[in-house]
Amino acid sequence: MSDLHARHRKVLPDWLALYYEDPLEITHGEGRHVWDAEGNKYLDFFGGILTTMTAHALPEVTKAVSEQAGRINHSSTLYLNRPMVDLAERIAHISGIPDARVFFTTSGTEANDTALLLATTHRRSNTVLAMRNSYHGRSFSAVGITGNRGWSPTSLSPLQTLYVHGGVRGRGPFAALSDAEFIEACVEDLKDLLGHTRPPAALIAEPIQGVGGFTSPPDGLYAAFRDVLNAYGILWIADEVQTGWGRTGEHFWGWQAHGRSGPPDIVTFAKGIGNGMSIGGVIARSEIMNCLDANSISTFGGTQVTMAAGLANLSYLLEHDLQGNARRVGGLLIERLRAVAAQDPGVREVRGRGLMIGVELTKPGTDLADPERAAAVLEAARADGLLIGQGGGHDTSALRIAPPLSLTVAEAEEGAAILEGALRSTQ
To answer: Is the pTM of this model over 0.70?
Structure first.
């Protein structure tokens, strides 16, 4: 055990998970590569959990952060903040939500917590619909334990959560159905569920479930859900913390694959927009965003230095068409990995779109998850210079592949070859 690992274990929580038997200390990065404390170089196919979206040490972002830090880092939302207004205007414009308002937080967890606060307050209901296999962060709603009425706009906590079918296409009771039949069955399940409860505040859903192993429903499911929700006045919250900003290639936002019935009422975002800086946020229609009747601020949400990073990163992303690159290079990578999977009886499925790809592993000849092999593949890939992630939900185990969106074709081929070797060595 390294000295740093020993110090980590002594002072940090036992539940703070680390990858690898010999945990890795990453000291610096450039482009799509990072280096560890021993000087080893790795091709990064996980990007700090989909957070280093554009590239490591992107000069445009580094320059913007440095210049802003030389002026002022932070003042809080109690003062006018030009970079925050600039970024909010750009995000509102590209959100697809009419009359959009934007509130910045420091993380996706806080963004989702804010979205739930808005939805429950606006709807006067503490019942929330969520998808099975979903993940939306690690906080408990802080508002419910606040003891000052002036700063507590709602006491509707804890939430009553009801779980809906549909987030996982390839497993569960509807897996054998066609896409159209799958959507119909999930919609009928939703209708039945709503007949047994008081009207919920909102449905919160990831267009592609991140921690759950990059699973997703057929395109159009949430549009069909929206038609049902609209009849009850139930809001739709799209959790775009992992899917936003063009990562899926085909769309800028994940919800656009389900946009037939219009945009969500609320969108949450984080991770990639800051390219490693701590930015999260909520986009909502003005009447929803403005429904709070008590004071609220964000001490660190929208701070000048993170907003400067977000502006520079978003500009780079759009000017260099990284969404198009994710579509092109991601499509090649998915096909390459599917060719590898065809020769491996332990790979149940290669799924995803753009540069958000899941490789589900099972014990050969069964549908049983194989987390031991997944861990072994992570180790073998690292040994050959590739970093990937791991995820999965109920009885599943998946490798998670999400490189920076500037990934080149050559790097995609290199990563696929390393992953192929790691899979073969662990069969």
So the answer is: yes
